[in-house]
Amino acid sequence: MDDSIHPIATRGRGAPTNAVPRRFGLAARVADGDWLDDSEDIDGPAPRLRTTVTDEHPRAILSFNTSPDIPFDRSINAYRGCEHGCVYCFARPTHAYHDLSPGLDFETKLFAKPDAPRLLRATLAKPAYAPKVIAMGTNTDPYQPIEGRYRITRQILEICLETRHPVAITTKSARVLRDLDLLAELAKQRLVSVALSVTSLDPRLSGLLEPRASAPAKRLDAVARLVDAGVPAHCMIAPVIPAVTDHFMESIVARAGAVGVNSVNWIMLRLPHEVSPLFREWLDVHFPDRAAKVMHMVQAMRGGRDNEPNFHARFNPQGVFADLFRQRFRLAVRRAGIAQKQVALDCSRFRRPALDGQLFLL
């Protein structure tokens, strides 16, 4: 890996560029002789790229889905966009819905939903509401850096504890430990599980792939502390990037097994919509020596395409390389002695929250 910074790489950010999406007719600007084309020569380099956060006020906070290949039907995303900057993030294309780029905009122009706790309380109080596990971290990370200021995720967990509502969390951040007190209480009542995603054991590589996520060692330490606190913990190797991160698979499984996780799994790299050209740019910047090899292996597992969008198939890569990864993973799990226990969270003890000072007797 070259130690130099490529001219189009932005230090501390994941996406190399801020490419304009074409799916929604947003025209990319071309050089036209305007003074803006020479602005850097006239005014000097552009100022350092900084993160901005805009408060968003949706009318509802629970999102429901009927996808047949994911194990939950409802989720909460307290934030839109994610400062972790994971270049491979499948959620990047959602920023295009707001005329923003899935590239650098996704990780620098963020949205927070401070009304989320109030909206959740109102939803759970409805007589027709039937509890099922709420998934958090399905689109953007609930423990990205701005959670330290907004504390929306913590407020949601407080409501889940109050109402005895089950919740499943997925994150790449050791910041989850800031809520260890709530998570431990939820775990005592079989109301929570936490999955931490670890993609490599190399902090420098992690800094290129997911520049503002917790370092791999901190994530594994967080897994260990969750286990020690009695919180059901799961370790994900997500995504596996062939010829870039796959050689860490066995070591990650071994480390996860050593701290006593309930289960582990792996997910092959997915490149939907604008993620594919962004990832290709990232390869050209950081791994030009193997960019073609990586994409050849990806396409060999995705029916000759960069991405397989169909239900079930999108999480089920095919071909010789995919079979090899499965065999390696199964053997690693067996060696690590991981039981692959599935944690069933308890929906039976749900109680509706109080609203406007009115208390529920049952």
What is the CATH C-level name?
A: Alpha Beta
Low-confidence stretches: 1-7, 27-39
Terminal CA distance reads 61 Å
Shape: globular
Number of helices: 12
Q: What is the fold-level CATH name, i.e. the topology?
A: TIM Barrel
Question: How would you describe what is shown here?
Answer:
The model is unreliable at 1-7 and 27-39 (pLDDT under 50). The chain starts with 38 loop residues before the first helix and ends in a 26-residue tail after the last helix. The chain has helices spanning 39-43, 104-108, 116-124, 147-150, 152-163, 180-188, 203-209, 216-228, 249-258, 275-286, 291-301, 320-336; strands at residues 52-55, 62-64, 74-76, 79-80, 109-112, 134-136, 167-171, 192-197, 233-240, 263-268. It has 362 residues and is an alpha/beta fold. The chain has one domain: TIM Barrel (Alpha-Beta Barrel), CATH 3.20.20. α3 (116-124) runs parallel beside α5 (152-163), α5 (152-163) runs parallel beside α6 and α9 (249-258) runs parallel beside α12. The protein is globular and about 60 Å long. Strands 2-3-6-7-8-9-10 form a seven-stranded mixed sheet. Strands 1-5-4 form a three-stranded mixed sheet.
